[in-house]
Description:
By secondary structure, this protein is mostly helical. The protein folds into 2 domains: about 5-80; about 90-155, no CATH class. The chain has 5 helices and 3 strands; from the N terminus they run E-H-H-E-E-H-H-H. The protein has helices spanning about 5-15, 20-25, 40-85, 90-120, 125-155; strands at about 5, 30-35, 35-40. A 3-stranded antiparallel β-sheet has the order 1-3-2. Helix 1 (about 5-15) packs across helix 2 (about 20-25) and helix 4 (about 90-120) packs antiparallel against helix 5. The longest helix has about 45 residues, at about 40-85.
Amino acid sequence: MDMIVGTQQLADVIGKTPKWVNTLTRDGVLEQISRGKYDLANNVQRYIKYAQHLSDNTDIDYNEEKALHERAKRKIAELDLAEKELSLIQIDEVVKIIERMVGLFKARCLTIPSKVSPLLQFETEMPVIVGILQKEIKEALQELADHYTNFAEKGTVEPTGEEHEPETS
């Protein structure tokens, strides 16, 4: 003869609260015979299968988590190695480099008007004016490229010695 128990008795047998038994019933893990009444043997077996399934999934989750953790540790080690090999630099170093290069380029561009104005003072031919301006702009861009090359070769943000300070009028 099957033993029929209430929610509280089933909760006591499986070591859970009545609320947990109701949740498991709603989720289809446990099966009621009628409202608040359970076949004890059937539901204990169902709960054991459910708990084993959780245990199996926990092992998989543990292994997956361990693999993710190991991948993260490997990635950190790779980044540390790349930084040590100077193939990767810190963001604050990149910011310093960019700030320096932009500052140098700005200073160089500010020298263009005072440098070309004497050349353009009496020039009336538009192609000649454009040519002079383009030449100066290309020189400024080349200096910027040279500064970048200096950094790439030497790994420094120090001046190359070729920078131009803006002229004050």
